[in-house]
Specification:
By secondary structure, the chain is an alpha+beta fold. The protein has 5 helices and 6 strands, in the order H-E-H-E-H-E-E-E-E-H-H.
Length: 169
């Protein structure tokens, strides 16, 4: 409820409505609750739905069991999800698998890589500012070069107020 109450202020700061809320991870956002208990998992699912009902889409990051065969905890969270996307790490690439979809076919698979690129330098310390970008699994270097090209003065872009605030923080 505190997050929902903060959405209007965040929208004002961003200059537009908040379209996406990412909770990383469900366990970190539900400290003290038992993810194995269907009652507690039901409360978590209801809270996620309340956020979505307030307007933004919600992505809730959750982990698999150590053996990688199933999602940790009660199945209530999976049952409540509109879509379940699984990310598997494979050496330098990752695989995104659409496991469940309420309104369409499941089973789609996408390969991608996360490429680290420097997008600037901290004006105070001179330390590099880095980010990760996604690219298809075969285009890691090309995607990195494109971001670096876009970050040069000739391709410089002004930061939005929310981006500037995030950089400052």
């Amino acid at each position: 409820r505190e997050l929902i109450a903060a959405l209007p202020a965040a929208a004002e700061l961003a200059g537009h409505q908040i379209g996406l809320v990412v909770l990383d991870t469900v366990a970190a956002c539900s400290v003290g609750m038992n993810e194995n208990d269907p009652r507690d998992s039901g409360l978590i699912a209801a809270a996620l739905q309340e956020i979505a009902d307030a307007g933004p889409a919600v992505i809730a990051v959750h982990h698999m069991t150590k053996d990688g065969r199933q999602v940790r905890g009660s199945s209530v969270l999976l049952a409540a999800a509109d879509r379940v996307l699984e990310v598997q790490r494979r050496a330098k690439t990752h695989k995104l698998i659409v496991d469940e979809v309420n309104d369409g076919p499941a089973g789609a698979r996408y390969t991608f890589a996360i490429v680290g690129v420097q997008i600037g330098s901290d004006p105070t310390t001179g330390e590099p500012i880095e980010t990760g970008i996604g690219s298809d699994g075969s285009a890691e270097e090309e995607a990195a070069e494109e971001v670096v090209r876009d970050a040069t003065p000739s391709g410089a872009r002004r930061l939005t107020p929310i981006q500037q605030r995030a950089l400052e923080l």
